[in-house]
């Protein structure tokens, strides 16, 4: 489903685009998709001369769940001195926050198609463990221990 857009980006930017066909949930639970993306990125970076790519111009990109994976791969590679440094990460409507589905953005956009609030929680559960039976508890916020909620309140809060 991404071949046309990848070809377009490659053609218009005159860049090499590598699209990773990672394993999908719920059949393949976390961390399968992350490991696939990380391994593919490391393989690409270790063999960069074969692809004719300037190692100073590597960008990791993803949308939706792929945005989450691109962010995770970028964070993992940030501390690696044995690989080229990433130039940037491009995250297109990434799924980055599953601590609180009651934040203003979730409330304001709860009925906006395509990714309704309930559907976002459902997909997070599918990604993590393949079982969406606890979606109501996740929407209520009871999946996060109180001490963790306090710890991350500075970054994840309505304020």
UniProtKB/TrEMBL annotation:
Q: Which UniProt keywords apply?
A: Hydrolase
Query: What Gene Ontology molecular-function terms does this entry list?
Result: hydrolase activity
Q: Which residues form the Alpha/beta hydrolase fold-3 domain?
A: 2-131
What is the protein named? ADCL4 protein
Species in which this protein is naturally found: Pedionomus torquatus
List the taxonomic lineage.
Eukaryota, Metazoa, Chordata, Craniata, Vertebrata
UniProt lists the gene as Aadacl4_2
């Amino acid at each position: 489903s991404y071949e046309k857009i990848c070809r377009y980006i490659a053609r218009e930017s005159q860049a090499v685009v590598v699209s990773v066909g990672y394993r999908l949930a719920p059949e393949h639970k976390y961390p399968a998709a992350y490991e696939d993306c990380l391994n593919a990125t490391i393989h690409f970076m270790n063999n960069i001369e074969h692809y004719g790519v300037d190692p100073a111009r590597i960008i990791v990109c993803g949308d939706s769940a792929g945005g989450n994976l691109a962010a995770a791969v970028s964070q993992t590679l940030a501390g690696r001195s044995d690989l080229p440094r990433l130039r940037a990460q491009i995250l297109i409507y990434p799924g980055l926050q599953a601590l609180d589905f009651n934040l203003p953005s979730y409330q304001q956009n709860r009925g906006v198609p395509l990714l309704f609030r309930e559907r976002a929680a459902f997909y997070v559960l599918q990604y993590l463990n393949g079982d969406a039976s606890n979606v109501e508890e996740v929407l209520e916020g009871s999946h996060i221990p109180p001490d963790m909620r306090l710890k991350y309140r500075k970054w994840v809060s309505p304020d």
